Amino acid sequence: MQPLGPAVPSALNGIAIAGLRLGEMRGKFEQQSSSVRIRQTLGGYRIMQAEAPIVEQPLTRKNAANLQEYLLQGSILDSSADVLLNRLRGLCDNSDSPVELFHDIEQVYTIKDQANQATFSLRARNALDNPQLPWQLRYVGQPEVGDKSRFTICRSVIEVGTSSNLVTWLNELGFRLDYEFVAKGHIFQKGRMKILVQKIHRVCQSGNPETLEPVSQSFLIELSVLAPPSQESLGEEMKAFADQLRPLVELEKVDHARLHVS
Amino acid sequence: MGVVIVHMVPCSGPEALQSTADNLCRMIERIGGQRDGVFCVDCETYFNTSMGRTQHVLHDSEHPASVFSLLESGLCLVADANFDSLMNKLTPQLFTTKMGTKVECKGPRYQVEDFVLKVGTVTIGTSARGLLVECEYQPCPVTASCWELMRELMESLLGVPLNQPGPYLALRMREIYTPVDTIQQYMEHFNVLRKSNPVQAVSAPASGQSGGQTNQNAQTPTSKG
Amino acid sequence: MEKEDKQVDQAVDALLSRTTDLKNNIQQLILRLENEYETLQWPAVLDYFALISGQMNNLLKVLRSDKLPKLRNRIILPLLVSPDPDPDLQRVTDGRVPLFNHQAVPDYLRTLCDPEIEAADQVILNKAAQMNGDAAQKLIAAHNRICQNACEIIRSTREDWDVDATSRVAPSIMSGDTIVLLSAICGGRYLRGPERAPNPSLGNSCPKPMGGPMGPGKMPTATVRTNIKSARGMSSHPYMR
């Protein structure tokens, strides 16, 4: 799937000026506007108008799907990462196509609510290797507590693809940059599971994403699924997959409450 | 994406809204317009009381997968449909919204050759406040190149002269048109209509923007809420 | 009488099946040793031995089972002894026993040991009868001690082998790193200001749970896995079965 960025309107315009009706372009873009992948929500606003706008009401808004993220995390030393990558390549889908790489910067913005003394955080993620992709704004909820029998972390997550003026928008609303990091690594997919093998770097000079320093000598591994709530069979699926990676990597439910957060 | 011009139609009062709208529709059909469904542009306003910020969240049925968030400074964030669930999550702790402030512009949509014409009645809360006509010329992306053409069509439909485009569009005549510009134009009109009294008759405009006696600084709207 | 006959028949059938399995396994082993002796690996041979030992266990189990009538009380009499090759016998025994003559009878229907072995046995039995109680106890104790020592030696050697296997395989997980990374991503630790994540040396083959940057008094219990445990599953030691 090619990202459809600013290049597309100019293509459209180029042809449009020649007098073609926009309606004829409709068919070409419709199949590309169907699925929404991780971080690759299409620059949809430029394309959507090619679709038939015969909508009586706007899309359902108040009852948009509440997605939960089921998560397992672990780490592996740099020296053994290659072995893991090979194993994942064999286990996951599309083993004959090259492994997908990603190089993202994620910034966490917080706002303090004077009334309740609570802090809200939102995460803004941008692909550094492909700046034309939409930015991703993410709200990540607290992990559900109390369910000891569940094998995975379960937390609510809302992901929104946005235009590139996200940071300005956040700043104007009163959010301030709390911290940022760069994640570089590989992304695998198996069915509806997404596996990330990423190296986390800190940004030494704020504003300059080239000055990087790894946070530790390990890669962080995340196995996650975004699904509607109450899907218990998911846990089994994820557990089975995690078992296949043992003893190279121990993917488990890390108690986020115990993380020492400054 | 073509060029879109949103124009406020002068009406002699709320009772005349319906008849004016019907007249317009008839005229469009007479020039060959094919009715193509309905459209809706709506705007909801959120306040962040602790920081004093306001944002307007707009939806346009022409771009159903997008949600636009417009800030006081004019910055517009374009997001996908999940933005609504995000706003649901952030209210009521971070943002609040007042009842009865939702602005909607609804009406029929017509396709006339390369043009798309929409006639929309603006309602704030439950009261009808005005009439907006949207005209899109699809093949051309630059306003300056097709302004004259669109002006001709609008003048023939509305029967009133259009001397210049609205303040927002006037600054962007030579730029490539984007859907954000449509939203900004709607927001301009919504702000004007919000301030105007529903009973007060809106006099015939001399320029492309109506409400001659209201102030012209619709560029930086401060919503009353 | 008939019940006993039936029991005997069943017992013989069971014994026959076990013996056939055993025979087949031994045959396979011999074939492999003869034909593939150049490429044969010790672990494969050990596999066969293990199999054969298992089969023998099964056989002995059947023999020891309660349902078995006293086979000791039954004798096998040769009814016909002839010096000519018997084709039926050849067929039944896969060509191993071509004829049933006077030489074959004592070999195959033997119930006692060889005379030499019987004599040696008798010597030992006499010796044991002559020994008195104390000496016998001492002998028994010494015997037990020797057995214990042998077991101990085997156990410690096996542990040494295990540790060798572990250290040869490089540990792939640094416990505590998961916590470091997640603290960074979720909480921003080590990303603001000058604080850097601690870097425990990799030469540590026995990582402690506090290897990570824990605050005082916080022990992440459920999240720690030691390297030894993790590498144990990877051990491909031949005796670890």
Automatic annotation (TrEMBL), chain A:
Subunit description: Component of the Mediator complex.
GO MF terms, alphabetically ordered: transcription coregulator activity
Name of the featured protein: Mediator of RNA polymerase II transcription subunit 18
Gene source species: Galendromus occidentalis (western predatory mite)
Family, as annotated: Belongs to the Mediator complex subunit 18 family.
GO BP annotations listed: regulation of transcription by RNA polymerase II; termination of RNA polymerase II transcription
GO cellular component: core mediator complex; mediator complex
Protein biosynthesis is among the record's keywords: no
Keywords: Activator, Nucleus, Transcription, Transcription regulation
Described purpose of this protein according to its UniProt entry: Component of the Mediator complex, a coactivator involved in the regulated transcription of nearly all RNA polymerase II-dependent genes. Mediator functions as a bridge to convey information from gene-specific regulatory proteins to the basal RNA polymerase II transcription machinery. Mediator is recruited to promoters by direct interactions with regulatory proteins and serves as a scaffold for the assembly of a functional preinitiation complex with RNA polymerase II and the general transcription factors.
TrEMBL record, chain B:
Family, per entry: Belongs to the Mediator complex subunit 20 family.
Biased composition range(s): Polar residues: 206-225
Region annotation Disordered: where it falls in the sequence: 201-225
Keywords (A to Z) from UniProt: Activator, Nucleus, Transcription, Transcription regulation
Source taxon at top rank: Eukaryota
Example GO biological process: regulation of transcription by RNA polymerase II
Subunit structure: Component of the Mediator complex.
InterPro entries from the UniProt entry: Mediator_Med20
Annotated function: Component of the Mediator complex, a coactivator involved in the regulated transcription of nearly all RNA polymerase II-dependent genes. Mediator functions as a bridge to convey information from gene-specific regulatory proteins to the basal RNA polymerase II transcription machinery. Mediator is recruited to promoters by direct interactions with regulatory proteins and serves as a scaffold for the assembly of a functional preinitiation complex with RNA polymerase II and the general transcription factors.
Native species: Galendromus occidentalis (western predatory mite)
Pfam families, per the entry: Med20
Record localization: Nucleus
GO cellular component, one term: mediator complex
Name this polypeptide is given: Mediator of RNA polymerase II transcription subunit 20
One function term, GO molecular function aspect: transcription coactivator activity
Automatic annotation (TrEMBL), chain C:
Cell compartments where the protein resides: Nucleus
Region of interest called Disordered, as start-end residue ranges on this chain: 196-217
Chief location: nucleus
GO molecular function, one term: RNA polymerase II cis-regulatory region sequence-specific DNA binding
Keywords: Activator, Nucleus, Transcription, Transcription regulation
Family: Belongs to the Mediator complex subunit 8 family.
Subunit architecture: Component of the Mediator complex.
UniProt protein name: Mediator of RNA polymerase II transcription subunit 8
Organism: Galendromus occidentalis (western predatory mite)
